[in-house]
Amino acid sequence: MNRKHFAIFVFCLFATAVFSQDVTLGIKMGYNSSLGFSENWESNSQSYSMENALSNGFNVGLISRFGKRIFGQVEVVFNRNYTSFSIGENTENHKVILQSIDVPVLFGVKIIDKRNFNWRLMVGPNFSFDVKSETDCEETPLSYTLRKSLIGLDCGMGFDVWHFALDFRYRLMQNRFAYQYLSGNENKTINNKPMNNFEVSVAWKFLDKNRKK
Fold first, then answer.
1. CA of 27: how far to CAs of 46, 89, 112, 134, in Å?
2. Residue 179, by phi and psi: left (phi above 0), alpha (psi -120 to 50) or beta?
């Protein structure tokens, strides 16, 4: 599925939600972070070590939720994160800017469902598309490949209080940049493991047809 077809798919989901009798629409913003990682490798008979720092950033976007106790939730979110990496000891930090449009498609259940309060659990895939991410590999033994689109897994819980929603998410997704080193005549990637991502966000529900009377 290319970006055009996926955009049409997401638009149809939002349109379905808007005309649903149990729709919730809102805007969200929050904080996100990814755990750092360390890698060791050898290239041309030399040993190297890479330390990637904890990332910090923000997210802002739209949410659409439809259904009652069992629900679906689709979001379109802009994410921007900052991090850095260093190679070896006493070397300068190389900055990394990560930017993406993420589309989580979540399915969940309300464990507690009251008029002005609910507690939700949710899980689902997250489709992520790069938006001009940048990394600095100059003067390092590394090259990189940009992963323009990724699919991750989101899970978490949330609380709705009156017209506000507070969500806590955990996400497994590959690093946006695949860092590589030359081993013989072959480029080898050193960060193939999924990243541990965390997100907390607050949403204001400007339309909530599903709020209990």
1. 50, 44, 23, 27
2. beta
